[in-house]
Structure formats: C-alpha cells, structure tokens
Amino acid sequence: MRVSVIIVNWNGLGHLPECLDSLQEQTFGDFETIVVDNGSSDGSLAYLQQRKDVRLVPLQENVGFAAGNNAALPFARGEYLVTLNNDTKAQPDWLEKLVEVAGRHPEAGMVGCRILSYSEPERIDSLGMAICKDGMSRGNYRGRRFAELAIEPDVEILFPSACVALYRRAMIDEIGFFDGDFFAYCEDSDLGLRGRLAGWQAVLARDAVVYHKYSMTAGSLSPLKLYLVERNHFYAVVKNFPLLLLLTLPLYTLLRYLVQARVVLHGRGTGGEFMTGGSRNECVLALLRGMRDALLALPTLARKRAGVMRHKKISSRDMRRLLRRHSLTFHELLDAGNS
C-alpha cells in the first residue's frame, strides 16, 4: 500500500460526501481511506458505516484533530500518510501528482499541495506555510491569485499545512506524529518544525490541487479558534525554536499584540474578522487564556523539548536561517493592509 489518506471528522456530514466522492475519482489507485470519527452527533457515523470505500475508526468523544489523526496511525498501512480535512474536494489527479513529487524527493519527509479556496477557486489558501518571529504561522500567499504567481515545481517550503499534507512514514516512525495536547491548530507547525530539526526536507507539489472551505468546524476566526491558536503556537515555539529565538519571544509577542490591537480596533484584515466571531472582550479573554495556559504548561513543554532535541540533526544557526527564508511579517499575518 503506497498511501493512507486520513480524514478526521467531527459533525461534518455536510462535507463528507463531496470529500469522499472526490477520492473515488482519483487517477491514482494504490491508497486506502481511513476516517476517524470524533464522536459526531449529526449522523456522520451512520453515513460512514454505509460507505464501503473507507475504513472507519469510531471514537466516543471529540479528541481533536491532532489526536484524531494519531488514532488512525495503528491502522495505516501506507508508505505515505496523507492528512485531508473533511471540508475539502480534491482534483482527480491530486494524489497522483502528490505521490510523484514524494517519489522524486526521498529526502523530503513532508510534501505540501496547492490548496485553493473552495468559494474562490482562483485564490490561494496555502502553498506551504510561513512563520513569524513569534512562531505564528500562516499559509503562503493566502488570498493571492495563483495565476498571478510564478511558482516553480517542487519548490522548498518550510512545512505543509496539515489541512492537506503528505508525511513520509519513515519520518513519522522517527520523530512521532502529531502532539495530541494541541487538540487542534498549530499541530502542523509543531510536526513540521520537528521534521526540519531532524533533517527532513519539505517541498511543494505545485500541481496537486485541493479546494478547501476553511474553518468550517471550529467556526471562522471564533474565540475558540483564537484561544487554541494563541496557546498552541506557544507550545510549538517552546518545543522547537532555537534558544536564541526563544529568548526574543516576549518582545516579538508584544509587537504582534500591538499590531493585532490596531487591526482589530480598525476592523481590518484577519484581525478585524475576529470581531465577527465574538465580542471584543471575548476575543481578548480568549487570547489571554491561551497565553496563560501556555505558561502553565511550560514544565511539560520543557520535557517535550528535550525529546525533540534528541532527534536534532541540523545546527541552531541553520534552523534560524531556515526560519528566516520562510518568514512572515505581522502585517502579512494579520492582513493589516487589507480593508
């Protein structure tokens, strides 16, 4: 078996048929589909039990995206593990193109895709991920029109978005899969940074195309998502960033808060959109709770960091250079220039 496609579902009945049907149309046939159902209450489980094209892993409760993917690991037989969000639709040659790139690059433990907006298919959701100096990440070129860019095939990326990503099983066997403590969001940053620290490369399968509806489960830019992203990006940074960058984290976090406050107050860009998902007080409280819970987790994170560093194969200097090559400004992160 070459590929195990893993889909984590929680109350996604409205999205599953289109997602799974697009897999049935793939030109590449040597794959299995594993669906982990996180205790859905919307009829998803009954629907999945009727489908003969999936291996169902039913869970009793919602353990999140990270632990949900981990639950599929004992059942996955593929040389490549491909994570796929339930609110996606893949082009028929998506998997074929993805596997071709992975085969050309045995040094790559991770391969990203051309993830486009479902509602505006000419616009990009992600072409791999970029990262800020405080560890916040965002999809490369998000919102840009793909036709306006000149993207080379098999270009290096920092790491892929786990919305749609291929992970080489050999890398996962070496460093582990997702950290279940993240629940959801930024778990791909953590896994991607761990992979790069361990010496694995990451490339983009430019012509492997998937359309993504974006934040359909947690709600677009809701206080819950704000809390998880704020907490989890600290988790990823403490576990993986070079020590020199870790020491500058308080300064860059403060700078991001200042930029974030300005765009929220003006109702602009991504920062302004948080206000559509909750009141200003709810958003501020979610952000502060995220920081508080990250600080409370520092002893655990320190132990995890020690485990990560045991697999480290590149120097801290090379890691800093890698992060600079794929850097993102706070204004880019928050779309501060958009109205």
From TrEMBL:
Glycosyltransferase 2-like domain: residues covered: 4-175
Record bears the keyword Transferase: yes
A Gene Ontology molecular function term of the record: glycosyltransferase activity
Cited Gene3D superfamilies: Spore Coat Polysaccharide Biosynthesis Protein SpsA, Chain A (3.90.550.10)
Keyword line: Glycosyltransferase, Transferase
Family named by the database record: Belongs to the glycosyltransferase 2 family.
Protein name: Glycosyl transferase
Naturally occurring in which organism (per UniProt): Geomonas paludis
